[in-house]
């Protein structure tokens, strides 16, 4: 059955998988159009029309065309407030602000060091690229320190933004999943009691399991 | 209620300040000297555990991350002052899109330039010419994309000024001023017109007058 909601990009991409997780949490049907990045499809003129920076994902529905995974997630939540997980982006302004605060923390503080580590530890070897040990060690230190802040927060609150699973937790799933499962850095999460508990809860959500399946099927 | 904003002389807090001015919300700057490391004081870390600015305090309500703070006030006071979020869900989507572009594609490079060109000696870190060169190259490619976008659209999210444009004000002001790379803006016709438009808004001029940069 045709659906107007289309996501362009490979499910293995962390940013693409962030959007997929959100669509599944919100029970919004979608089509996934693969983009072969190894063949440079993300830099083709046709793709650049929908994502001028040549990055994945790109998103389209009957009304608009968007990019940037966290923007797409917010749009999906605002457009379909009554579908699926209604509290994913909060049901009142204070809840929403707390979620935005932690989505920003993810984007500004968690994403940069975790992305470097995922690339260096999981992707570089597969792409037969030389690893940069000093980059690895610098970013491990940053992430370790950051997760110390998370440990304290998750001792006060079940999830990052409050008592309910939200976009803020979801936003962390893609990079954390690779750190644990492809970069041999599970210890970052298991060495801290509250972070370990939180990781266990969010990674076992049905929506995330479905995304991981999509990733496995795409290889 | 007067909203307290910590660290008003610095760039990221200025996103919040200009948003509050546009939304006609009263605020009070709370000085915090990052150059003296005051953001790492235990008292401050209780408010903002990551040790960064801005933080806002609105009565008992504390919020951090400039773009989260802007979204909260822009939405809470939607019917007051300038509408910074667009009128429809789709327009809001475009605002979010270009706000994320600012956060992930623009800010990292202009931040590196700020750190190395403006603050390295004050912070006792070595000025890295390679980082400066690479950041300028990457920023240049991003600005080429902005040039294309702004040739079709008056503002980043569409025909209306929004949080997406506003978010660029503080660090672009550094870029054309103390960083000394005004040519990156003036050499691009549409980016230049956009920058002149947004930076001449009374709200931005007011913020610059109230809290001049710390250098």
Automatic annotation (TrEMBL), chain A:
Keywords: Detoxification, Transferase. It is found in: Cytoplasm, Cytosol. Residues 92-219 form the GST C-terminal domain. The keyword Hydrolase does not apply. Pfam families: GST_C, GST_N. Its EC number is 2.5.1.18. InterPro entries: Glutathione-S-Trfase_C-like, Glutathione-S-Trfase_C_sf, Glutathione_S-Trfase, Glutathione_S-Trfase_N, GST_C, GST_Phi_C, Thioredoxin-like_sf. Residues 3-84 form the GST N-terminal domain. The keyword DNA-binding does not apply. It is an enzyme of class 2 (transferase). It comes from the Eukaryota. It catalyses: RX + glutathione = an S-substituted glutathione + a halide anion + H(+). PANTHER family: GLUTATHIONE S-TRANSFERASE RHO, GLUTATHIONE TRANSFERASE. Belongs to the GST superfamily. Phi family. This is glutathione transferase.
From TrEMBL, chain B:
Keywords: Detoxification, Transferase. Its EC number is 2.5.1.18. It comes from the Eukaryota. It is an enzyme of class 2 (transferase). It is found in: Cytoplasm, Cytosol. The keyword Transmembrane helix does not apply. InterPro entries: Glutathione-S-Trfase_C-like (IPR010987), Glutathione-S-Trfase_C_sf (IPR036282), Glutathione_S-Trfase (IPR040079), Glutathione_S-Trfase_N (IPR004045), GST_C (IPR004046), GST_Phi_C (IPR034347), Thioredoxin-like_sf (IPR036249). Its main location: cytoplasm. Residues 1-81 form the GST N-terminal domain. It holds the Pfam family GST_N. Residues 88-215 form the GST C-terminal domain. It catalyses: RX + glutathione = an S-substituted glutathione + a halide anion + H(+). Belongs to the GST superfamily. Phi family. This is glutathione transferase. It comes from Hibiscus sabdariffa.
């Amino acid at each position: 059955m045709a659906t107007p909601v289309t996501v362009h990009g490979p499910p293995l991409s962390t940013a693409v998988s962030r959007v997929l997780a959100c669509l599944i949490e919100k029970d919004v049907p979608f089509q996934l159009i693969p983009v072969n990045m190894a063949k440079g499809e993300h830099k083709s003129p046709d793709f650049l029309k929908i994502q001028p920076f040549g990055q994945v994902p790109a998103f389209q529905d009957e009304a608009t065309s968007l990019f940037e995974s966290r923007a797409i997630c917010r749009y999906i939540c605002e457009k379909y407030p009554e579908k699926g997980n209604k509290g994913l982006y909060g049901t009142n302004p204070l809840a929403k602000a707390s979620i935005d605060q932690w989505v920003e923390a993810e984007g500004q503080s968690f994403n940069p060091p975790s992305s470097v580590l995922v690339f260096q530890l999981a992707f570089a070897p597969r792409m037969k690229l030389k690893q940069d040990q000093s980059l690895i060690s610098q970013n491990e230190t940053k992430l370790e320190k950051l997760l110390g802040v998370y440990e304290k927060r998750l001792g006060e609150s079940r999830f990052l933004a409050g008592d309910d699973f939200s976009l803020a937790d979801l936003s962390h799933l893609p990079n954390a999943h690779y750190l644990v499962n492809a970069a041999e850095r599970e210890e970052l999460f298991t060495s801290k009691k509250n972070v370990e508990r939180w990781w266990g809860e969010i990674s076992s959500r049905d929506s995330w399991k479905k995304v991981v399946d999509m990733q496995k099927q795409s290889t | 209620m007067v909203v307290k904003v910590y660290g008003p002389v610095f760039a990221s807090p200025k996103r919040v300040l200009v948003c509050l001015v546009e939304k006609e919300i009263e605020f009070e700057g709370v000085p915090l000297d990052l150059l003296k490391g005051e953001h790492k004081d235990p008292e401050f870390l209780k408010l903002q555990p990551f040790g960064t600015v801005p933080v806002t305090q609105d009565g008992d309500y504390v919020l951090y991350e400039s773009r989260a703070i802007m979204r909260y006030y822009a939405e809470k006071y939607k019917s007051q002052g300038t509408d910074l979020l667009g009128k429809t869900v789709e327009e809001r989507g475009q605002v979010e899109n270009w706000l994320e572009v600012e956060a992930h594609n623009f800010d990292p490079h202009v931040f590196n330039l700020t750190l190395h060109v403006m603050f390295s000696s004050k912070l006792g870190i070595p000025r890295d010419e390679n980082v400066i060169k690479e950041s300028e190259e990457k920023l240049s490619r991003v600005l080429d994309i902005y040039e294309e976008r702004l040739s079709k659209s008056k503002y980043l999210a569409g025909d209306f000024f929004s949080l997406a444009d506003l978010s660029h004000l503080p660090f672009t002001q550094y870029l054309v001023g103390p960083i000394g790379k005004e040519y990156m803006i003036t050499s691009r016709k549409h980016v230049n017109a956009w920058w002149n438009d947004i930076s001449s808004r009374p709200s931005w001029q007011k913020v610059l007058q109230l809290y001049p940069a710390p250098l």
